[in-house]
Write a structure and sequence with these properties.
The complex is a heterodimer of chains A (about 500) and B (about 450).
Chain A (H helix, E strand, L loop, with lengths): L1 H12 L8 H11 L8 H18 L24 H11 L10 H13 L9 H10 L4 H17 L5 H4 L12 H9 L2 H14 L1 H11 L5 H10 L9 H7 L5 H12 L5 H10 L3 E4 L5 E4 L7 H5 L13 H12 L3 H7 L3 H7 L3 H14 L2 H10 L11 H12 L4 H10 L6 H13 L10 H7 L5 H10 L4 H23 L2
Antiparallel strand pairs in A: 1-2
Helix pairs in contact in A: 1-3, 4-5, 5-7, 5-27, 6-7, 9-10, 10-11, 10-12, 12-14, 13-14, 15-17, 17-20, 19-21, 20-21, 22-24, 25-27, 26-27
Chain B lengths: L7 H7 L3 H9 L6 E6 L3 E6 L7 E6 L4 E4 L9 H12 L12 H28 L2 H32 L9 H13 L3 H16 L3 H20 L6 H11 L5 H4 L3 E16 L3 E10 L5 E9 L12 E9 L7 E3 L5 E5 L8 H14 L5 E14 L2 E5 L5 E3 L7 H7 L4 E8 L2 E8 L7 E2 L1
Helix pairs in contact in B: 1-3, 2-3, 5-6, 5-8, 6-7, 7-8
The chains are: A mainly alpha (about 500), B alpha+beta (about 450).
């Protein structure tokens, strides 16, 4: 409406400097249906402004578009999650649940269970959840799985939530988006490494390819981090890359690469190590079997390249013993059986030197062999072997080992044993934690305890909290643990 | 004899925000409570918090009013809400008592006393005011003061336009505050606040000149209207008084028209000008098909009245202030919530804009108006978000409004949306989506 713009222009300049243009006065008279009242020009402008504004506001016409609206979200036939469960999720997302170390893992568990129970999230929580999962990556997979088609649809309308829009709902995985490639190319080191680690969890080969593209330009620290991250999803496909990394400029990279190759029994390095070890081993005897392993000579450059180092050995061990341990640790365990025709239990029984046994423990752990781990555990109560055993056996072994572990080692023992633990073992764990003389045992990650302890011991934990009396720090931890367990129980009960 | 207890939804509606509801839910474990009891009008209990002594919580059901010894500044605090939740959901734990607990009884007595004092003051006051001659003299004096203030405003506006608006951006805030203070002295606080606020907009808005001229035009219209007030319709005078800020006395209010209806609570919006918080509750009468606006105010630090939940149906005889539609209204003391989940009649955008035009033409001083659009969807383009209806018309959504909850609840499917129009933009207030007859606040 030009009359209005002209009026504003006149008012901006001021009627003192620029009188009301007659053309405008005439336009206004037409618009108002009457001549402006005879008055000083500034008052005429004000009157006209008042009336025109009223016209403009009342007479506004909405624009019209013929383009159809975007498609609505596809329907979700799953039944709604129970109201009590949804309220619990809301509490978790709002940070209302105080758990030392953070309650994120509880929300992640809620979402996973909701997806498995084939229930859908209440729609009103979707924006809140998307915002929370944008900040906390650990929630992303669960959010996508539980959110369903409406969450996808909602995320596709907001660039901040792009990660959820392109996610593959069926596989329940969160796949990288174009956004991720940009992060890899231009992001900060922390972001890149975080991305790499997340990618290795879902698409290890793609992650490695991504690293190979930029490998030559990476700084040593990043190279070391990348190789270390390859331990997630490690597979034979990574062998060529790791073999090449044995020649890297940085010691950290070489060392990690050698360690990882030792976990791949089919690798060339493992074969080379077996060739080194075989001449040293003699076994024989019919009635009384014997097994002898000679100590090796100084490692040659090829052996050095394959990761045999001088430093890092246990105290009061000679260099040759340490080299032997490393060689045994890197040799595929199958060699013992194939070459010598001896089963694991026999080898362990016959191997009478500390360095060989130590090497076997390392090998069993790296190569993930439950049979060897079980055989070794019988003679060597070593926590790290627990991680290799199948859960049921590990659980039993944990119960047995708790009695003899020192306070300092309890943490490592619990860490190594994957959950969920049986009721008996859980009780044993609690008993052991309670008698710990140092509070160090309680510095332990609450999330780990909360996810592995059996829910039936919640009552025991609460009693422990009451018994703690004045120790505020410990009490807070233990109460938090009880709370977390009780919430997990509620989640399991509500979302089945 | 058990009094009728409330519903969970009514209790949740009292909480100041969603976080409080969650916090209150966390306190509903019976282990943390002791000394629970209730009567027809009171509920009380003691809640063990993180301190040494338990908090004493009392709720007077008639208003409702809350009293709690916790240090929280929220109103009502989570303990009050939790107590009511327990009273509603675990009825047997909160038994009817014949003897009221000490702390609850004391507070109820104090309230009774101050209410009695207020009533006494009012009657004393009304004896004074009911003298018609004195009243007429006072009113005449006031009108003279207001006329003088408006004359001065006209001179000030004239100076502004004569010297040119361009110069006003260089003026300090004192320039606006001085005129605003004059208007306060002249007993027009509403207009005073607008003048003060206009000073802020000239440095913030890109379209400041258009906005300022439009505002000045409105003020000038008000001056014109004031001078002709004897010849104007009662409704127009009512709107003018509201714009200027000349509020109604209690005895005047007794003479106002009333309308009894089943009122649907369509939406609630809050405003904060830095000094006073305001709350607009838009209600739509099912039988009359008319809108009304319930206004609440609170000074900084005080609590606003807790509105009825959006979607509830309230049976009440509202007192209507004189003025154009939709009128400002006041709830009587005896409103009753009869149902939850009612939805007002919805129109197309064209129909709503028509209605807006009628309302705005009758009252140019209106700032906010209600709309209910049928089959609305939210769409976005480069310019921002729009509310679009079936025939394809679009209303611009206010830039600060959050579209995500509406999108999540509607899933992009057409739904009935209640919104508040303000200065050419709309703020969605509520949507009836997942359940067609259930209006949910946004």
């Amino acid at each position: 409406m030009t009359a209005w713009s002209d009026l504003v222009a006149t008012a901006l300049v001021g009627t003192e400097r620029h009188p009301l243009p007659p053309a405008l006065a005439a336009d206004l008279a037409t618009a108002l249906g009457a001549d402006l009242p005879a008055a000083p020009p500034e008052l005429s402008v004000l009157t006209a402004a008042g009336v025109l504004t009223a016209y403009r506001r009342a007479g506004w016409i909405p624009p019209r578009h013929d383009d159809p609206a975007p498609d609505p979200a596809p329907s979700d036939d799953r039944p709604l999650a129970p109201a009590a469960a949804s309220q619990l999720l809301e509490l978790l997302l709002n940070g209302e649940v105080i758990v030392p170390g953070g309650a994120g893992f509880l929300a992640a568990e809620w979402l996973d269970r909701c997806a498995s129970a084939e229930r859908r999230l209440p729609e009103r929580l979707l924006p809140h959840l998307l915002a929370a999962a944008t900040g906390d990556r650990s929630l992303r997979a669960g959010t996508v799985a539980a959110g369903g088609p409406r969450l996808h649809w909602l995320a596709s309308r907001n660039p901040d939530w792009a990660w959820a829009a392109t996610a593959d709902v069926d596989a329940g995985e969160v796949l990288p988006t174009g956004d991720d490639a940009t992060v890899w190319a231009t992001g900060e080191s922390d972001a890149r490494m975080g991305l790499f680690a997340a990618l290795r969890a879902t698409r290890p080969d793609d992650a490695r390819v991504l690293a190979e593209e930029t490998w030559s330009g990476e700084i040593a620290r990043d190279r070391a981090a990348i190789v270390a991250a390859l331990s997630t999803g490690l597979g034979p496909g990574d062998e060529p890359f790791l073999e090449a990394a044995l020649d890297d400029r940085a010691k950290a990279v070489r060392g990690t690469a050698a360690e990882l190759l030792a976990a791949l029994p089919s690798s060339r390095m493992a074969a080379r190590m077996a060739d080194r070890l075989r001449p040293l081993v003699t076994a024989g005897g019919r009635l009384r079997k014997y097994l002898e392993v000679a100590l090796p000579e100084e490692p040659d450059p090829a052996a050095r390249r394959d990761g045999i180092v001088d430093a890092g050995g246990p105290p009061r061990t000679g260099p040759r013993a340490w080299w032997l341990t490393q060689m045994v640790a890197a040799t595929p365990l199958a060699i013992w059986e194939d070459h010598l025709g001896l089963d694991p239990a026999t080898v362990v029984r016959l191997a009478n030197s500390r360095e060989v046994r130590h090497g076997l423990v390392l090998a069993a752990r790296r190569q993930g062999s439950p049979r060897w781990a079980a055989a070794l555990l019988a003679h060597h109560p070593t926590p790290s072997l627990l991680a290799v055993l199948p859960p049921a056996e590990a659980d039993v072994a944990l119960g047995r080992l708790l009695g003899t572990t020192t306070d300092a080692q309890v943490g490592a023992l619990l860490d190594a044993t994957p959950g969920p633990w049986s009721v008996a073992t859980s009780r044993a764990v609690l008993t052991r934690l309670r008698v710990a003389k140092t509070t160090g045992a309680l510095q332990y990650a609450l999330a780990v305890l909360a996810t592995r302890l059996h829910p039936a011991v919640t009552g025991d934990i609460e009693r422990w909290a009451t018994d703690l009396g004045d120790d505020d720090h410990a009490r807070r931890f233990v109460r938090g643990l009880a709370r977390a367990l009780s919430i997990r129980q509620t989640i399991a009960r509500e979302l089945t | 004899m058990e009094a009728k207890r409330w519903t969970t939804q009514q209790v949740i509606a009292l909480a100041p925000d969603a976080k409080s509801v969650s916090a209150a839910r966390g306190l509903t474990s019976l282990r943390t409570w002791s000394d629970l009891g209730c009567t027809d009008s009171l509920v009380w209990g003691k809640c063990q918090g993180s301190g040494k002594t338990p908090y004493q919580v009392t709720v007077d059901l008639t208003e409702p009013a809350f009293k709690c010894t916790c240090p929280s500044r929220k109103f009502p605090c989570k303990h009050g809400v939790a107590l009511l939740l327990i009273w509603v959901e675990h009825g047997d734990a909160v038994g009817d008592a014949s003897v009221v607990a000490d702390f609850a009884g004391e507070w109820a007595e104090q309230r009774g006393q101050s209410a009695a004092k207020r009533a006494a003051k009012a009657t004393r006051g009304s004896v004074d005011i009911s003298d018609p001659e004195a009243q007429a003299r006072r009113q005449a004096a006031r009108e003279i003061t207001m006329t003088a203030g408006l004359d001065e405003l006209e001179r000030w506006l004239g100076d502004l336009v004569r010297q040119g608006l361009a110069g006003v951006r260089r003026q300090p805030y004192a320039f606006w505050d001085a005129m605003s203070a004059r208007l306060v002295d002249a007993q027009m606080p509403g207009l005073a606040e607008r003048v003060r606020a206009a000073g802020g907009t000239v440095v913030v808005r890109d379209d400041w000149a258009d906005h300022l001229l439009a505002e000045c035009g409105r003020w000038h219209l008000a001056i014109h209207a004031w001078r002709r007030r004897q010849a104007l319709d009662g409704d127009v005078v009512g709107d003018l008084r509201a714009f200027l800020g000349w509020s109604r006395r209690a005895d005047e209010a007794a003479a106002f028209a009333t309308r009894r209806d089943h009122w649907v609570v369509a939406g609630v919006r809050q405003g904060d000008d830095g000094r006073i918080r305001s709350q607009r509750t838009w209600v739509w009468g099912q039988q009359s098909g008319r809108w009304a606006l319930v206004l609440d105010f609170a000074a900084a630090g005080a609590a606003l009245r807790v509105p009825h939940p959006v979607g509830s149906l309230v049976d009440d005889e509202l007192t209507l202030h004189p003025g154009g539609h939709p009128p400002r209204a006041a709830l009587s003391g005896e409103h009753v919530v009869v149902a939850a989940g009612a939805v007002p009649a919805a129109t197309t955008i064209a129909g709503a804009v028509d209605q807006l035009a009628t309302w705005l033409a009758a009252n140019p001083w209106r700032d906010q108006l209600p709309l209910v659009i049928a089959d609305a969807v939210l769409v976005d383009d480069d310019l921002g978000w729009w509310l679009q209806d079936a025939p394809g018309h679009r209303l611009p959504v206010a830039p600060g409004a959050d579209p995500w909850l509406l999108l999540a609840l509607s899933g992009g499917a057409p739904a009935t949306v209640a919104a508040e129009w303000e200065a050419g933009f709309v703020h969605p207030m509520a949507v009836a989506a997942t359940t067609p007859n259930q209006l949910v606040a946004l």
